[in-house]
Structure formats: structure tokens, C-alpha cells
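Instructor's aside before we start: the two examples that follow are unrelated to each other. I chose them only because their records fit on one page, so don't look for a connection. First example below.
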Amino acid sequence: MKNKRSIVILLMLAIAMLSVVPALTVSAQDSLIENLCLVTDTGKINDGTFNQFAYEGGKKAADEFGLTYKYIETVAATDYAKNIDTCVKEGFKAIITVGFLIADATKAAAEANPDVYFMGVDQSIDGAPKNWVGLVFREDQSGFLAGALAAQMSKSGIIGGVYGIEIPPVKKFRNGFENGAKFINPDIKILGTYNDSFVKPDVGGANAKQFIGEGADVIFGAGGPTGTGAITTAAQSGVYVIGVDQDEYNTSFGGGKSPGSDKIISSAVKQVDQAVYLATKALVEGGADFPGGGYLTMSAANAGVGFAPKHDSDVPDSVTEYMNDILVGLKHGWISTGVDPVTGDLLAK
């Protein structure tokens, strides 16, 4: 009797397990795509910032869902349309394009190819077609966190920010950073400059040296390799630095192996990889969660932005605890960045 009862129980468990398999498994016929192509902004997939992490998000999705995956590294902005067209002509049904500046070329391609799905990192499009989704971020929130940290760690009362091209995501970083610093110290002096390129680390380094000469003892770099040039130069000069997009302690300072790695106190993180992964996953699962013609917004509320650990730096634990309190405030809307989450402009007080 005992053995029979055990067999019945096992059979019931097996039936129960079989009944839930369809809910947990995506069948091949449900998926809207079988392949995935990524076109970078100017720069490479190992740039340590958004090109790299868009690539890694796509790679994770491709590996997990068995998709054919290809990437094209853009050399110049004049190649945007050509590179997207290469993906289309080679039969790719889902295309990731990276950066605000490639948005126009992405929109044109999406309108011309309604049977292809497009995911635009850091893009906003008026009148966007239904086969396109913008992957956008609350850079103002992660910038705000970076500014709050910078103000707490500054001894001179002067901090600086080195930025890329003045486009909405970068404006959100800058204005968020400056408002975050003022949240801690309303009298803090903030130096800052935009640059005409994301891929000029030497220019970023020169900016950092100028600001250090003016008394800045914390430098924030938000502008791809241009910003990375600023923080590596500043860190090697013994100045605290804050990275951007991903944890630059790992990407730009070799996980503690590069000179100045003890000076990177955090990074203003945006989960580009997770956004690309989620959008691709939505297509694989049939498209019900693919917000075509709209946006997938990553914010403090869904862990889409935040700040990186202090690693080898001497940030006091009390400061880290307060940073986590600020993050909770941003998540629940108790703290406002004072920045328009779309345009990056300062909000009226």
C-alpha cells in the first residue's frame, strides 16, 4: 500500500510539472525573432561604457534564447545608415542601435522596414513607429547620486564634471550631478564642460587637469571614452573620481590593477545591458511586453540606475549608508532631482 501511494504521489507530481511547462518555456513559434544585430555608436564594443554594455546585454539574450548574433562597430556618424542597412540586408529581424545620435537613422530604417524590430539605446523619437522601442534611463537620478557623493567627499568645496556632447542623456547626467551636489552642500562650487566628441580621452584628460588646477578634488566623467580620459587622468593625479554608465572600477581601472584605482569612489550606473536584454526577451516571448512606439524606462524604481560600490577607495561606511538612503528616496519619489527626465533641462523651482 505504501509503495502504491508513493507511485500515485509521484504521478501526480509529474502531471503537475508537465502542466506548468508551457507557462515557463517559450516555444520557437512564439518568438518573433531568430537573430539579433547590434550597431554601435562611434566607438567599439569594448569601450567600457554604453557600447560595451549594449553589446553584452544582446550577447546574454542571444546565448540564452539561441539567437544568431552579430555586431557592427561604427567608425563615423556618416556610417550609421549604412551599418543599419547591412543588418537589414543580411536578414536580421531585431536590430539594436546605440546612442542618441543614431536615432534619426534608426527611425528611417524602422519606417522603411516594418517587419524588422528596432531597439534604440538612449533614443527618443517623435511619432515613433510600432516596430521601434526607445531604451531610456533616468540619468538624472544616477547623476544626482554621483553629485551627492562628490559633495560629501570633497574637502576643497570644489568639484568638476567632464561631459560628452550636449544631448539629453548627457544633460541629465550633468544637471542631476550638479543638483545632487547642491542637495548636500548648497554653497559648493561646481565646474563643468561639454565636449564635441565622446571618443577623445586626451581632451577629457585636459579638462580634468584644468579643473584640478582650479581646486577641484572630485571629478565626474560622463561622456564615453572622453569622460574616461578625464577620470583616469584625475585619479592618477591623486584626485577622487566618479565613473559613468557601468562600474568603471572594473572596466577602466582593471578591477583594481590600474594606477589610481583606489581613487574611483563610485560610478553613476545605468543598466544598459539589462534594458537590451529585457527588450530582446520581450520579442522572444511573443512581443506582448515589447512597448512598440514607446519606451522602456530604466529608473531607480526598477533598479535600472544606481551607484557602484566604493571598492578600494576610502569612502566612509556612513557615507555609503546615506547614499543608500538617497537612493531609496529617489526610488519612492520622496526626493526629486529637479531635472526633466526626458530633455535633461532643469525644472522650474
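Example two begins here.
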Amino acid sequence: MRRVFEDEQLEFARISREDRVGYQVLCATASGDIVSARALSAGGMRYRAQSREDLPAVGDWVVLRWAESPETPGVRTSSDAMIVEMIPRRSRLLRQAAGVRTDAQVIAANLDVLFVVTSMNAEFEPRRLERYVLAAQESGSEAVIILNKSDLVDDPERYLEQARAVVPEHVQVIALCSLNGDTKALSPWLTPGSTCALVGSSGVGKSTLSNAIMQSEQQLTKEIREDDAEGRHTTTARHLLVLPDDQGVLIDTPGMRELQLWAGEDSGMDVLFSDIEELTTRCRFRNCQHEDEPGCAVQEALESGELDSGRLYSWRKLGRELEWRAKRQDVATQREESRRRGRMIKQIVKHRKNKKTHY
């Protein structure tokens, strides 16, 4: 719905693309049509931002201020827009940003559904699916696992069973072939007003799937390498697409070589690894480390075959990673708060000096 402001230079919009120069935004006209425009973030917004997470990202709802036409005061121009406010997010998908700094990168904002795409070939890795499900749970969006390229295997059920074995029962696992354009299995999530995102490694068919959902060649696609089934980067930036037939919007994302988790308030470990968490409650000792202690229910389940050794390894590895990440984030937050206080004190001292000089 188009939001009307008393100030004619203000307008509601949504971020559809981000680059080094600025943003591409989508706005609704008075007639209900969707138009695209360029916009920059206002200096005040950048100044107030304490981290990259506080700046607009693809999927964010924002308020634009259009520049006035110099020839006709009070009438906005059609090309110059500044983002002056960001509407609070109801969800956001985060990961640790690349580089040495401890900083969150917003992959997509205001998501309802996260389509985690993998393919039924050498790229398939259950441990990677666990990471994406954890990220989805921390974001507040619903995870749906899509096993693409079902045409490459004689027995898709084998892959479906492996995927279902590592995700919670409430997470849907779907097999399809995006090449044939059949996306009916995704219709329960492609609904009016919904925001979905495609994530996964390069070459799993995200762009092909995006084109199938859009019913047009919106995204460039390439064949995977035949020697190792590794993918080739075709999508180079996150892009929000308005779906036809009132199916909501879809955010296509570049392939991720690695998903470094961001430690939020609720990691989701207790949901993803509910089977292991339940076993830990049956151990003889409360402080059991689940190594070689007597009466360890986890080790007993491992020896009996009830618990897979790879899943136990993943539980330990992800738990240690999130714990380490949380400590790093706490230190980074404290340092940033110290720098912020330092800047504030410098401004106060400078203001007092200027005041004394003035009088």
C-alpha cells in the first residue's frame, strides 16, 4: 500500500538492490504501479549508525526525501532521493561480515521465508544445511530446504532422507528440478505480501529457480563445471524481485562459499539439535562433558547407533563456534561503546572551549 505523507517530498520505499554507490529502491505510484529509483543514505543516518547493521540493506523499508526542483519549488525532482529513515525490521538474516573486524552483515531484511537451496550432486552437504537452518532461526524467518536438480539422480529419496535427518521436524524439505520450470511445490510460501529469499552455494541453481518463479529470464545462469560439480558465480549482488500473479517478492542472493554464523540472543541450537539436547538431560552428572564420563547418555547413544557421530561432531563444533563468536561480539560492542563515549566527550570539550572563546 502506498503511504501518503503531508510533506510531498517524502515517500515510502523498499530497498531492492545495494551497491558501492548507493541503493536501488522500489516505490508505488498513485496508480499502484511499482517504479524503480536510485537513492543515497542521508549523512545523518550514516553518522548515527553504530555498525553496518544499522544501515539499510536489501529488503528494508525506508522513507525517502526527494529533492525539490530548482525551477519549481515545492515540486520534487524525479531522480534525486535521500534515505532519511529506516523502518524498524521485523526480521533480518545476519552473518559475520568478511574481514578481520567483528561486524554483522545483513544479507536480507524483513524476511518471512528462507529458501535454502542445495543440489543433488557432489555439492550436497548435510552439515551445511544445519548452518543455514541455525541462521534462519536466529533471523526469525521460516526455513525451507530445497533439494534442486532432481533430474541428476535416480533416487532423490536418498537425499531427502539425509536432509530430513539433520533438520527439525517443522522444517519442510522439498525436491524439485528448476530447469523444467515447475515451482508448484513452493506455492504455499509464495503468497501476497510475503518476502522470500534464496540462499545457498554457487551453482546449486538459485538463479534458474528464480527465473522459474518469475516466469522470465531475469537472472543470468551458467552451467556447473563437469569435473567437480562446483558452481560458477552468476548472481553478484542481492536483488529483490517483485513476483508475478501477486506472489509477494523474492530476494536472490550470490552464492556463499562459507556461512559464518552470527551469535544472536537465541542461537536455535536447542531446536536444531533437540535430539542431542534431550540426551544430555539423561546423563548421570549435570556437568557431564559427554566425552568419557560414566553414565553419559550421549556416549551410550553414540555406541548403540542411535546417534550419528557426524551429528555429534557438528553439535560440538557449532556450539564452540557460537560461544567464541559471542565473546568476540561482546568485546567488539564494548570497544565501540568506548569509542562512542570518547567522541561524545571530545564534542563536549570542544563545545565548552568554543563557548568560552565566544564570551
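Residues 113 and 142 are 5 Å apart (CA to CA).
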